[in-house]
Design a protein that fits this description.
The complex is a heterotrimer of chains A (321), B (501) and C (143). With 321 residues, chain A is of the alpha/beta class. Chain A has 2 domains: 173 residues, 3-Layer(aba) Sandwich (D-Maltodextrin-Binding Protein, domain 2); 99 residues, D-Maltodextrin-Binding Protein, domain 2 (3-Layer(aba) Sandwich). Chain A is globular. With 501 residues, chain B is mostly helical. Chain B has one domain. The longest helix of chain B has 35 residues. The N and C termini of chain B lie far apart (69 Å). The model of chain B has no long low-confidence stretch (mean pLDDT 81). With 143 residues, chain C is mainly alpha-helical. In chain C, α3 packs across α4. Classes of the chains: A alpha/beta (321), B mainly alpha (501), C mainly alpha (143). At the A-B interface, α2, α3, β7, α7 and α8 of A face α3, α15 and α20 of B.
Chain lengths: 321, 501, 143
């Protein structure tokens, strides 16, 4: 008799507790895989400022830098913090491609808890302003005439810069060289100095150079035209039947967290994307808003990695997974 | 805009009491940050970003810039007193600076460092003011072959750092090159020498190696003696507490050399203050009348690298301000800050924001003066640090080293690496392998390899690209010349011997 | 130990490293179709390393170096390093403050043969100062 009473009382308390949603009670950490000033770091800090301004988070936000290993260190760090409810991480495209090419990058997005996709970063194809190419066709045709002679500056061969190149090369039959530079500054310097002929560059990086008249944009790497470039054709419009591989940014969390926690993060981020500050941030930086819930994100992840694997293998890069 | 008019406007902005205050805060913070090994300007600036939103952008950039060049002043302090490089650029200062301290001339060393930093910092600002846009355009002409030649010139300096055994120096440098290659290859994404460890995917951080080999190695070496009070001699008398007139006279060329080398190398995106300080040090030794004394504690051996790393800050700001291209990790954060505040850094930035630009330039003049005034009286104070008994000093050094390394990466693995390199440093000391070439190889190796591969990719495999371009051909010839210096020395000695006979 | 003998062994060790480097680099692409591959550079400096090590070993065998390396103090240095290694191992378990205090205590007490109370006092004081300065004042994370 007593046992069942205790049991019933226990259940009476337990049920409301289960239904109760999660609220953070101590500072939230956002883990990023770059050092201070890097892309993910800047985004995390901007998000922290916005969350405070729009008062959608009751506690402080702290940014934790875990650079190294092309994202592997940050991913492994999150994987270790199983069940930690007050921590999220910003992931970018490298988190998805790194495990494909590096045997040491053991943690993939599937080992963590996907929360939401936030942004897509579009890109544009740019040449020096005094180059003889007025359209993307001009450049590709020139490349076809002199295979292997024209050059493109970019990041590593698994970066989106090279993926665009692989796709374009495949549909056009042209061939041009890809030269890796470790930093955005160096890539731009190589283009402006005339040492390479073309580069794939993010619009917010290129903006000022275009305004100053040093660079010209031939095409945009996105599905639809960006508001800042109403007169520039997309890849498809320029005649190249290529589906742009997106460069994503989103949020993940450590594995093993309760469902209410996931729901809370999803909700918080959704609220964030609806605020004025966020919309302004997206517009200023020329991102594409691309919110997806955790379920959608998981599906996106599977499709994306399959697509990347094919592209990398075609490009001759060794994949380990 | 007319330079004189711009500068006047700039001083009007910079001399406002609020901005003077922020300038002071910046340079003070910078000095403190520079003293701490591991904690560097990029992280500090990033931490202060939320605060800057409440400030006027001019005040904010004045303060952040103050942190940037202030850190270069502070970095020399621990290098000289404890053989712990506070910043990667301060490694070259350790060579002669620490030796001067061992000889009881710590105060003079610190003073020379401060004066060199002041002169070079001012030269850097003058450079920004006068030749920023044309210089930036010239810097664009610098491409991979030139970078390769520059790195080769830097590596050629190894012959000047060799000491007794050239073979050991070269081996040391090769190990440095190997360490530089550990990690993920940029071009092919292949993992090299990572032994399956994820922590090594992005390579070994230079700071870990430098602090391990220098500081921990030094501590271990000192543990050999049984006597407790083996502390460094405390400088006595004004002669040793401050640099003498003779010191300043000896260093005149070093001031010029360091300022120019540092400034021009700083303008190149991708070449930083570490390279600048090494090249300046090597150059100073090459033209010196007493090269064999370098490494034992000569003031110009401190003046040259210190001037170089300060002038470099001025140089690095040029591509950032005139083209919107970050040249170093700190300028990358500053760039991000400008963007966050709503500015658009790029070729049109200076033209559209003259008040901000000139205000910044003027504040840098003021800031350098503030730093000189701040640092000089502190010199005797810092020198007193050496009074600490050895048994307190050495554990503290180890503690600072560990905290410094951990704070940069947050990884225990790096602390293990620190210990490992400490052991290596000690063993190298015992077996008479010079450690400077190791650091040189580590710093330059990555850039050298990248530049070579980029160059060959650009020329479709033809090596002639390296010599067909005038600038790179020039620098490679210089490098060859440097490599032949020891041969000349030997020839000269043989000639003298023959004459004597 | 004579310097020459030490040179021989260190030369051998470095030669071994050189050979290892060449072996690893052989597995990677030496010359890709775009340019030198990841194996290019390591092969060359591996060869240089092996070659120079050989030269060192040869010269050490032939030379009449009368210098000796004083290994007497080395034991103490290695012991200190061992203590450091233990302290680093402890970092994960016990945190910085305790490990550092322990290391300081060891150095003061054992290495410098100061009375134990001095060691303890120094250890506690130093650890406290570190904590105060770094963790509290600067907000730097300690292991």
């Amino acid at each position: 008799m007593r046992k069942s009473l205790v049991f019933a009382l226990g259940m009476a308390f337990a049920v409301p507790a289960l239904a109760q949603s999660f609220t953070p009670t101590r500072p939230v950490e956002i883990v990023v895989h770059t050092g201070p000033g890097g892309g993910a770091d800047v985004l995390a800090r901007a998000m922290a400022v916005m969350m405070e301004k729009e008062k959608i988070l009751p506690v402080r936000v702290q940014v934790t830098n875990k650079p190294g290993g092309g994202g592997a260190t940050a991913a492994a760090f999150l994987a270790e913090k199983k069940g930690e409810t007050h921590m999220i991480g910003i992931f970018t495209g490298v988190w998805l491609t790194n495990p494909l090419t590096s045997a040491e990058a053991k943690v993939s997005l599937r080992d963590l808890t996907p929360i939401a996709r936030l942004l897509l970063e579009p890109a544009v194809i740019a040449v020096k302003a005094d180059a003889p190419y007025k359209t993307l066709n001009d450049f590709v045709a020139a490349a076809k005439q002199k295979p292997g002679e024209l050059k493109q500056s970019g990041g590593s061969i698994t970066s989106r810069d090279n993926v665009v190149r692989q796709q374009l090369q495949k549909v056009s039959g042209a061939r041009w060289q890809f030269i890796s530079f470790p930093g955005g500054g160096e890539r731009i310097a190589a283009l402006l100095g005339g040492h390479v002929q073309m580069m794939v560059i993010e619009p917010n990086e290129a903006g000022e150079h275009i305004r100053a008249g040093n660079m010209r944009v031939l095409a945009q790497v996105s599905d639809s035209r960006l508001p800042a470039f109403p007169n520039v054709p997309t890849l498809k419009e320029a005649g190249f039947n290529v589906t742009p591989v997106p460069q994503v940014r989103g949020v993940v969390a450590p594995p093993g967290i309760p469902r209410e926690n996931v729901a809370y993060w999803e909700d918080l981020l959704k609220k964030l994307t609806q605020t004025e500050s966020w919309k302004k941030y997206v517009a200023d930086n020329q991102f594409e808003p691309a919110y997806q819930t955790s379920a959608e994100l998981a599906k996106f992840y599977d499709e994306f990695t399959a697509q990347m694997r094919d592209i990398l293998q075609e490009a001759g890069v060794k994949t380990v997974r | 805009m007319d330079i004189a008019a711009g500068l006047l406007q700039g001083f009007a902005v910079a001399a406002q009491p609020a901005n003077l205050l922020w300038c002071f805060v910046g340079v003070l913070l910078g000095t403190i940050v520079g003293i701490m090994p591991g904690l560097g300007p990029p992280a500090t600036i990033a931490m202060l970003l939320p605060l800057t939103f409440l400030m006027d952008p001019a005040s904010a950039i004045i303060m952040l810039a103050g942190i940037y060049y202030g850190a270069k002043y502070g970095g020399s302090t621990t290098s000289i007193l404890l053989n712990v490089p506070g910043e990667s650029a301060s490694v070259a200062t350790c060579f002669d600076g620490y030796q001067m301290a061992r000889r009881g001339r710590a105060g003079a060393a610190l003073g020379i460092a401060a004066i060199a930093s002041f002169i070079a910092g001012t030269v850097g600002v003058i450079g920004i003011m006068l030749i920023a846009p044309p210089l930036a355009r010239m810097a664009l002409a610098f491409s991979s072959p030139e970078y390769f030649a520059l790195m080769a010139l830097g590596l050629a300096m190894v012959v000047l750092l060799a000491g007794r055994s050239m073979v050991k120096a070269l081996l040391s440098m090769l190990v440095g090159l190997w360490l530089a290659g550990i990690g993920t290859d940029l071009f092919s994404q292949t993992s090299r020498f990572t032994f399956g460890r994820m922590e090594l995917l992005s390579g070994i951080d230079f700071v870990v190696v430098a602090i391990g080999v220098f500081a921990i190695g030094e501590v271990l070496a000192n543990m050999e003696g049984r006597e407790a009070a083996k502390a460094l001699p405390v400088p006595k008398g004004l002669r040793n507490l401050l640099p003498t007139g003779q010191d300043l006279k000896d260093s005149r060329f070093a001031f010029a050399n360091g300022s120019l080398v540092g400034f021009f190398i700083g303008v190149l995106p991708g070449a930083g203050s570490t390279i600048a300080s090494f090249i300046s040090y090597g150059l100073e030794k090459a033209v010196s009348r007493r090269p064999q004394e370098f490494g034992t504690g000569v003031p110009e051996g401190v003046a040259a690298p210190e001037a170089a790393n300060n002038a470099e800050t001025g140089g690095a700001l040029i591509p950032m301000l005139t083209l919107g291209i970050p040249g170093s990790s700190t300028t990358a954060v500053l760039l991000a800050a400008l963007v966050l505040w709503g500015f658009k850094p790029g070729p049109l930035f200076i033209g559209e924001n003259p008040a901000l630009f000139w205000g910044l330039v003027a504040s840098m003049y003021i800031g350098n003066v503030m730093l000189l005034v701040l640092n000089m009286p502190l010199v005797p104070l810092f020198a007193q640090v050496l009074r600490t008994p050895a048994y307190v000093l050495y554990p503290v050094i180890i503690g600072i080293a560990v905290v410094g390394v951990y704070s940069t990466s947050g990884s225990l693995f790096d602390v293990w690496l620190l210990a490992a390199f400490g052991l290596l440093g000690y063993v190298m000391r015992k077996l008479d392998y010079p450690s400077a070439p190791l650091i040189l190889g580590l710093v330059l190796g990555g850039a050298l390899e990248r530049a070579l591969r980029q160059s060959l990719m650009m020329s479709d495999g033809s090596v002639s690209i390296l010599v067909s371009r005038p600038v790179s051909a020039l620098m490679l010839s210089l490098a060859l010349l440097v490599l032949l210096i020891p041969a000349f020395g030997k020839l000269n000695r043989l000639r003298l011997q023959a004459i004597e006979k | 130990m004579r310097a020459a003998k030490a040179d021989f062994w260190s030369g051998l060790a470095l030669g071994g490293l050189g050979v290892y480097i060449i072996a690893q680099a052989w597995q990677w692409e030496y010359l890709g179709n775009d340019g030198p591959g990841p194996g290019f550079f390591p092969v060359w400096y591996g060869i240089a390393m092996a070659g120079l090590s050989l030269a060192l070993m040869v010269s050490s065998v032939r030379s009449a170096h009368a210098e000796t390396i004083d290994w007497s103090g080395a034991g103490r240095a290695f012991a200190t390093w061992a203590a450091l290694a233990v302290a680093v191992a402890l970092l994960k378990v016990a945190g910085f403050v305790i490990s550092f205090a322990a290391l300081t205590f060891f150095i003061v007490g054992v290495m410098y043969r100061r009375p134990l109370w001095v060691g303890a006092a120094t250890a506690v004081l130093a650890a406290a100062v570190f904590y105060a300065v770094f963790a509290l004042a600067l907000g730097v994370k300690l292991p």
